[in-house]
Amino acid sequence: MPLTISPSKGLQGTITVPGDKSISHRAAIFAALADGTSRLTDWLPAGDCMATIEALRALGVTIDVEHTSETAATVTVQGVGLHGLSVPEKRLNCHGSGTTMRLLTGLLAGQPFSTVLDGHEGLRRRPMERVARPLRQMGATVVTRDGYPPIYVDGGNLHGIEYQMPIPSGQVKSAILLAGLYADSPTTVRQPGPARDHTEVLLRSLGVPIETDGTTIIVQPAEKSLPPLDISIPADFSSAAFPLVAAVLIPNSELRITGVNTNPTRTGLFDVLTAMGANVQIENQTDMAGEPVGDLVAKSSTLRGTEVSGDTVVRMIDEFPILAVAATQAKGRTVVRDAAELRVKESDRIKATVDELRKLGAQMIAHPDGFEVYGPTPLHAAVVDSYGDHRLAMALAVAGLLADGEMTIRNARVIADSYPGFVSMLKNLGVTVVA
Ligand code: S3P
Fold this sequence. Notes:
The protein is of the alpha/beta class. The chain contains 13 helices and 24 strands. The strands form six sheets. It has a four-stranded mixed β-sheet with strand order 22-23-1-24, covered by helices on one side. A four-stranded mixed β-sheet has the order 2-15-17-16. A four-stranded mixed β-sheet has the order 4-5-3-14, with helices on one face. A hairpin with a 2-residue loop joins strand 16 and strand 17. The chain is globular, with a radius of gyration of 21 Å. Shikimate-3-phosphate binds at residues 22, 99, 169-172, 174, 196, 317-318.
């Protein structure tokens, strides 16, 4: 499905964006493991999170998903308890969701039965030894196909380990912590950078003993049952990133995005935009489901180039396609380093972002672990491709708002993997867009 989008003369108003994808996955998993009925409101009914629901159902969990709007659902989960999952009849289909596959591999490593996890072609190209290795050390049998899906897991009888993660990853950390609930002794994970900590936040709120100083995380085996959850999911910073950057780049814009999760492990892009001179603020800060939330306010700004490396990369790992669009409009050089992980996301995000933005006239160079952008450059309308990557598709749509004519983005259906309602949000802001 192609998406055509026309230039915008300014984005004004107040919007909401859908619930956080990472928290939606985790909340569904912990609700399944709880004793009793959980209620999750403003849950994200996107393709990736629905893959987690489908897999949990296949493991014997009764889950009702009631859409309350195009972008939100109320999910009711009849928890089966920590030891109540049942053997699935067939392979678990994780569709295109890396989070589903990696988190559930950790959970299944703790179960006394065997399972196979698989997914579609795009997911089958993503590396899985990063979760298999520590889970094997804990005592599970985990077999990948030369490092890639499908994954065979035969779980149970786990031991606590001390594990130094070679790369900072919220998914790998969460897989180990989920398995750690089923181990016979404490599990320690050391992370080389501040990977998102939503699993830790939720475990703490469920009363599981978990200690962390930000670098070392120690989880105790779950001795007590988990209580049911009754939470609202805060809006996803990674989805807010698209209208946020659009408002910064398009003249005559002033946009407020309400109730967005501002967990510092997620807001690296906000800090980078500020360093580039963007007029962006966080207002009305409060707490929701143990997470900080606030309104993001963005006004049209003049940007300068910057450097992004180290821990900041981890704190904005999903925001590089949209940062690249911002950098095309910034004066001078923007350089991204230490971001080789981008090569193994939904697409090779370094190659795909550079190739597609160059078609619009961007001055960009790819590096093994990042890219360089020289700006500002006017963007020319062209036909571009999402490479099956939802975040690249939305970044290209924002580029289309700045271009000199109507842009076409091929394979844009994938946007629904993380942001159902993206097109409606743009239409409500007066953008001419046809999907
Ligand atoms: C996620 C972690 C990140 C991120 C992904 C969601 C999560 O992946 O890119 O979109 O929910 O834990 P990595 O753990 O591979 O960095």
